[in-house]
Predict the structure.
Amino acid sequence: AQTVTQSQPEMSVQEAETVTLSCTYDTSENNYYLFWYKQPPSRQMILVIRQEAYKQQNATENRFSVNFQKAAKSFSLKISDSQLGDTAMYFCAFMKRRGSQGNLIFGKGTKLSVKP
Amino acid sequence: EPEVTQTPSHQVTQMGQEVILRCVPISNHLYFYWYRQILGQKVEFLVSFYNNEISEKSEIFDDQFSVERPDGSNFTLKIRSTKLEDSAMYFCASSETPPGTGDDEQYFGPGTRLTVT
């Protein structure tokens, strides 16, 4: 069975600074996807970034980038130039590629507060 | 931008009652999902649904649960006889393409908070 662990329940960062959210996972699968979802207060979860395990290059989306370490089963999210709108819960998630029917496995989330 | 919508936003029900949670997925999406999050715990997968059939279900999705796409727009989750431990936030999601393909991003609704008393 796959598990996803986010060891930081809460974090805070000053506006314009950089913050890194940690995520580790456990799986025996070789091909899979990893995701970071953002859930702003009272709003729906939206996809921030995804990484395909067979790609060595780390995914980036504007100010968001990941550090994917497959051997260590680590998938951290770096937010550069933090903005007040980045305040949200961030969920790390895993989905196996083979035989998947869309079953996303989530971590418990990290609550990020960006302070002015 | 199209969004997944869910109604009601909050439902309070008594133990043993049936509840139906409603979702309207994005109109051109064909793959549908339900997840739940008990307060303070992880978001957990319940079920995926495609072509009027369940594709995959978790251990949580027992005989008390059912899903249906009664018409071309709604996707519902029914809990037949609610228990106290069914109290949770229930999220619906939809995707355009099959899981594991390039455009399979799951778009989530805002959730329905179910409180069983």
Observations:
- Chain A touches chain B through 24 residues (CB under 8 Å).
- The two ends of chain A are 41 Å apart (CA to CA).
